[in-house]
Amino acid sequence: MRGTTPVDVGGGFELGSRNPDASRRAVAKVRRLVERTRLARTGPVTLAGGHGFAMVLSGVPQPVVVLARGDQVVVGYAPSSARDLLDPGQPFSRSDAGKAAIASLGSGYQPSVVFVADPLFSLLGLVGANDPEVARALPYLGTYRSFAIGTKASGSRTSLRVVANLRQPPAVPGGGGGGNAGGGGTEIASTNVP
Q1: pLDDT, tens digit, for every residue of 143-186?
Q2: 77 and 97 co-located in one domain
Q3: Of 14, 68, 22, 20, whose CA–CA distance to 45 is shortest?
Q4: Same domain membership, residue 84 and residue 120
Q5: Contacts of 176 (CB under 8 A, 6+ apart)
Q6: Do 84 and 163 belong to one domain?
Q7: Same domain, yes or no, for 48 and 113?
Q8: CB-neighbour burial class of residue 17 (10 A; exposed 0-12, middle 13-18, buried 19+)
Q9: Which of 28, 45, 137, 191 is 20 to 30 A from 167 via CA?
Q10: 3-state SS string over 42-70?
Q11: Are 186 and 125 in a shared domain?
């Protein structure tokens, strides 16, 4: 995420894929679905070697761009965001925030979903500044640093771990504290799957 106004804000997310052909087909299906809903105008986009489409929503300053390239599927608010997702200056996994969120899963866990909160909460604060419901939720949402889901295989067992990393652990009545999952996070769930 970047920017400070609705005109220059940008951001998005990347989905990993093991099948580039299936990724291209999925992007085409999403485009057809968007066109059927008639909530947005669409048009083809080729950018940084990725192929897909842009959605132009009424009243929204920038298009949402959906692209597939090889093992990547990206969704970006603004073409520059989609380009940055396909060719980042620094991969998320090498950024300080990304490394910390991934490390919070603990040793041996492979991340499946990792989300760093600050950029999204900055955007929510910007776009929701005049919305009383968003304003009431921001102090609570702002306590989160990141959220991660990962798995670890050991023999015939696979462990799943979900970790919410908090800025300050919440006060718990009776003096108890939240759990700690390798790196200061509050472990929401951890289970073994045979």
Answers
A1: 888 889 999 998 999 999 999 888 865 555 555 444 444 445 55
A2: no
A3: 68
A4: no
A5: none
A6: no
A7: no
A8: middle
A9: 191
A10: EEEEEECCEEEEEEEECCCCCCEEEEEEC
A11: yes
99 and 85 assigned to the same domain:
no
Q: Which helix (H) or strand (E) holds 21?
A: helix 20-37
Element (H, E) at 139: helix 132-141
Least confident of 81-85, 121-125, 144-148, 188-192: 188-192
Residue 4 located in a structural domain: no
Dihedral Cα 31, 36, 41, 43, nearest 10 deg = 30
Return the residue matching tokens 């996994």.
Answer: 93
**pLDDT recorded at residue 180:** 43
Q: Is residue 177 part of a domain?
A: yes
CA 124/CA 163 separation, integer angstroms: 22
- Predicted model pTM: 0.62
The 10s digit of each residue's pLDDT in 108-152 is 998 888 888 776 676 666 666 677 877 777 777 778 888 899 999
Q: Do residues 21 and 76 both lie within one domain?
A: yes
